[in-house]
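Give me structure tokens for this 334-residue protein.
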Amino acid sequence: MKLKISAFILLLFIAAAGYAENAGSRGSYTRGGWAGAEYAAAGMTGEVLADDVFSIYWNPAGLTELRVRKKLTESQITEKAKQGNIDDITEEDLLNFSESDANRLFFNIGASYTKLDIEREAGFAGCAFNFFKGVIGTGLYSITSSDIETRDDNGALTGTQNYSGSEGFLSYAIQWNIISFGVSVKGYYESIGESTYSGAGADAGFQIFLLPFIKLGVMVRDAGGFLQPQDATDSENRYDFFSPQIKTGIAFLSDAGVKIALSGSKKLEQSEFEYGVGVEYDISEFLTMTMGLADNYFSAGFILKVMDMDLSYAINYDKIDFGYNNTVSLALLF
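Here you go.
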């Protein structure tokens, strides 16, 4: 019975590892949201805001924005010309609309680390680059915890065990007119003490510019996802299927450097909805301030932009232990 009690306690912990409300589905560790401080600070609204390497986690469709991220838009070039700021317009900007320039190779690499409040840690690392007419990306997301107490039927301490859960991504995104579509094939691995599990699944999403200043995002996470025991003596030899999560969001973008994002989320095994609200404000071309709410839990942060580097920080109020989570991330585009 000791092993069964230990496994039960650990499974309860895993359910809390992302959000406490996730207890109805296996693989809840995939839904924590600790990938990229910008999106953690903006109320977990990355399904619509994500436009860099962290889109691999949030919504693979966002990867397509990397193809034009370093360039000025046509309206920006026109505005600079009217203001006489000719020197600010580079040759690369002027070639923005040519097919040959759009196919020039780029790389966006990024990593983030989160120190969660109840002795948990989470991290993400990924790389994205253009491939034919789209963008391909690979990434790894992981959450770990050590020294988890295990107890027997009488509540006596029997020892400690470690937990880790990871998912690897292979993503591809392509744009057609105002619509971007992306898909990720994923591999899962989970370790609970001496028991291990592995499996596979997929994410899919799209982003649409309904108007130049209104963006819609939809994301389906863990479609067809499952874990199968590999070395778990107390588990039946069967597949444990996940219940997918559906996230939708809408963002309002302004020329004044303000982004407002609203999102809704539904885990199919639950009756409740979750929501997120995020606001980003460009104080200057080098600094953006961010704040948000995720189910009434406050978050805030900033993005420091230096040349082709984004350094971001986020602080989130923890929904499980009611402390604070801290996330830092770094992304380079070249």
